[in-house]
Write a structure and sequence with these properties.
Shape: globular
CATH topology of the largest domain: FAD/NAD(P)-binding domain
CATH class of the largest domain: Alpha Beta
CATH architecture of the largest domain: 3-Layer(bba) Sandwich
Largest sheet: 6 strands, mixed
Distance between the termini: 33 Å
Bound molecules: flavin-adenine dinucleotide
Structural class: alpha+beta
Strand content: 15-25%
Strand order of the largest sheet: 6-2-1-7-17-16
Helix content: 25-40%
Number of strands: 17
Number of helices: 13
Oligomer: single chain
Length: 445
C-alpha cells in the first residue's frame, strides 16, 4: 500500500503543535487533530491550541540552568512554542512566564496560518485506515478514545493514570557525613541505599512538622481516595508517629553508624540512576506544597541542604511505562508507525513536553521522507531528557521526570556542585554545536 502523503498528529497541545510545526518545517503536509472545542478534558477550558492548564511559567530563563538550556536548544530548533512564549512574556524575575491567553492565541495563529498544516477540530478516535507515520500527543488528560487505542497496544500495565511521586534529590546535595550507604540486614561493605537515621526526639519533631505542613489542594477531578498501598506520607503521619515508624520509616535491620545502635526510625533513598546523581526518597509520595517539602524533608539527617530534582506529587497523569512500551525513538512497540509525543511519553512539564514534541515531529518527518531516524546528542539537555525514557542505566520503577542536571551524563570524579553543573553545561553546548551544523546525520548518542 502507498504510504499516506500527510502526517497525522493527534492532540493540539504543546507537544502536538511542536510536532506538527517541525514536520511542516521539513516540508511535510500535516493534519493536526484537536478535540476542543467539541470536547474538553477536565482541566482544559479554552478553544485555543497549546493551552497552559495551570501555571503560566516556563520556569528558569537562564541557560545556566537545565530547563533554561533546554529552552535554548528548542529555540535553535525553531520551536513554535518558544517563539510564541518569547513574544508574549510577562515580567517574572528569573523565570520565563507568559500571558497565557496571548501565548495560546499566538501558537494557534502560527499553526493555523502555516500553509502545510490543516487543523481539524475533531477527536482522534481510531487508527487511520492507511498505515503510515503519525504522532500521538493527547497529553496527561488524554481522551478515553486515545487512551483506549494506546492501551490496546501496550496492555493494561503499559499505561498509568495517576502519579504518586516521591521526591528525588540530587546526590551532590546530600551531606554524606550524616547519611550512609546502608541496606537493611547488611553485614559488611557498602549498601545500595542511602540511609538516614533518626533518634526519637528528632523523629517526633519531624513527625510534628509533617502533620502540620501545608498540602496542595486536590483538583475537582482528582479523586482523594488513595490506594492503601501507596498513601501519601502526610496521610500516614496523620495516623500517628507509630504508623511511620512501623511503616516507611521502620528501622528494622538497621544499625546507625553514628550510635552503633538501632535507630528509632530511618529514611531510605534509592538510586534513580546508575551514576548515582539522583536519589528517590522511598515511600515519601506526597501532596505537600513544594515549600512544605523543602522545609520538612530537609529535617531528614543528611538532607539539610538537599536540592530537589523533582518534588513529590500526587496528581492525575496519563503516561506510558516508556522504557518497556517505547523504542529508542519513542514509537509504540508493536505499532512502529506511531510516534508518541509530550507528557504521555513520561516527560513532565510544559517545556519538556514541547521539547520532546519537536523530536517526535522530526523523526515522524524523517520516517515520511524515508531517511534515518535520529536522536539529539546524549550530553545535550534534550538528549538527557529523552535518555530518561530509556531502560539503559535505570534503577527502580519508571516515573515521569522534569529535565534536571541529574539526567545529564555526570562529569568524572566527585566535584563540588557548581563545578559539576558548569562541566555539564560545557559538555552539552560542545555536543550541540556540531549536531546543529549537521542535522541530517544519524544518531550521535
Ligand atoms: C491539572 C494539571 C496541571 C498542570 N500544571 C502544570 C504546571 O503548572 N506547569 C507545567 O510545566 N506543567 C503542568 N502540567 C503538565 C502539563 O499539562 C503538561 O506538561 C503539558 O501540557 C503537556 O503537553 P502535551 O502537549 O503533552 O499535552 P496537553 O498540553 O495536555 O495537550 C494535549 C491536547 O490533546 C487534546 N486531545 C486529547 N485527546 C485527544 C484526542 N483523542 N483527539 C484530539 N485531541 C485530543 C487535548 O484537548 C489537548 O489540547 C499540568 C498538568 C495537569 C493535568
Amino acid at each position: 500500500m502507498t504510504p499516506p502523503a500527510v502526517l497525522q498528529v493527534a492532540g493540539g497541545g504543546l507537544a502536538g503543535c511542536e510536532a506538527a510545526w517541525r514536520a511542516a518545517s521539513r516540508g511535510i503536509p500535516v493534519i493536526l487533530w484537536e478535540m476542543k472545542p467539541d470536547r474538553f478534558s477536565p482541566a482544559h477550558k479554552s478553544p485555543d491550541l497549546a493551552e497552559l492548564v495551570c501555571s503560566n511559567s516556563f520556569r528558569a530563563a537562564s541557560p545556566e540552568n537545565a530547563v533554561g538550556l533546554l529552552k535554548e536548544e528548542m529555540r535553535s530548533l525553531g520551536s513554535v512554542i518558544m517563539r510564541a512564549a518569547d513574544a508574549n512574556s510577562v515580567p517574572a524575575g528569573r523565570a520565563l512566564a507568559v500571558d497565557r491567553v496571548l501565548f495560546s492565541r499566538a501558537v494557534t495563529s502560527l499553526v493555523e496560518g502555516h500553509p502545510l498544516i490543516e487543523v481539524r477540530r475533531k477527536e482522534f478516535s481510531r487508527w487511520p485506515a492507511v498505515k503510515g507515520p503519525l504522532v500521538l500527543a493527547p497529553g496527561p488528560l488524554a481522551s478515553e478514545a486515545a487512551t483506549g487505542l494506546i492501551a490496546a497496544e501496550t496492555g493494561s500495565g503499559g499505561l498509568s493514570f495517576y502519579d504518586a511521586l516521591a521526591p528525588i534529590v540530587t546526590g551532590e546535595s546530600l551531606d554524606r557525613s550524616r547519611i550512609f550507604a546502608r541496606d537493611r540486614y547488611q553485614e559488611e561493605g557498602e549498601g545500595d541505599h542511602l540511609t538516614a537515621f533518626f533518634e526519637k526526639e528528632d523523629f517526633l519533631a519531624f513527625h510534628a512538622a509533617l502533620t502540620e505542613a501545608d498540602r496542595a489542594a486536590a483538583r475537582p477531578f482528582e479523586d482523594e481516595s488513595y490506594f492503601e498501598g501507596c498513601l501519601p506520607i502526610e496521610v500516614m503521619a496523620a495516623r500517628g508517629p507509630r504508623t511511620l515508624a512501623f511503616g516507611p520509616m521502620k528501622p528494622v535491620g538497621l544499625v546507625s553508624p553514628l550510635t552503633g545502635r538501632r535507630p528509632y526510625a530511618a529514611v531510605q533513598l534509592r538510586r534513580e540512576n546508575l551514576a548515582g546523581t539522583l536519589w528517590n526518597i522511598v515511600g515519601f509520595q506526597t501532596r505537600l506544597t513544594r515549600g512544605a517539602q523543602e522545609k520538612v524533608f530537609r529535617m531528614i539527617p543528611g538532607l539539610e541542604r538537599c536540592e530537589f530534582a523533582r518534588y513529590g506529587a500526587i496528581h492525575r497523569n496519563t503516561y506510558l511505562a516508556a522504557p518497556e512500551a517505547l523504542d529508542p525513538f519513542q514509537r509504540l512497540l508493536g505499532r512502529p508507525e506511531a510516534f508518541m509525543a509530550g507528557q504521555i511519553t513520561g516527560v513532565e512539564g510544559y517545556v519538556e513536553s514541547a521539547a520532546q514534541g519537536i523530536w517526535a515531529g522530526e523523526n515522524a518527518a524523517r520516517a515520511m521522507l524515508g531517511i534515518p531516524l535520529t536522536m539529539p546528542p546524549r550530553a545535550s539537555a534534550l538528549g538527557s531528557l529523552i535518555s530518561h525514557l530509556r531502560p539503559e542505566g535505570r534503577r527502580g520503577p519508571f516515573a515521569p521526570s522534569n529535565v534536571n542536571f541529574g539526567l545529564f551524563p555526570p562529569p568524572p570524579g566527585r566535584l563540588p556542585k557548581k563545578e559539576a553543573a558548569r562541566l555539564r553545561l560545557e559538555a552539552a553546548r560542545a555536543s550541540w554545536a556540531p549536531f546543529r551544523e549537521n542535522e541530517n546525520h544519524a544518531a550521535i548518542w
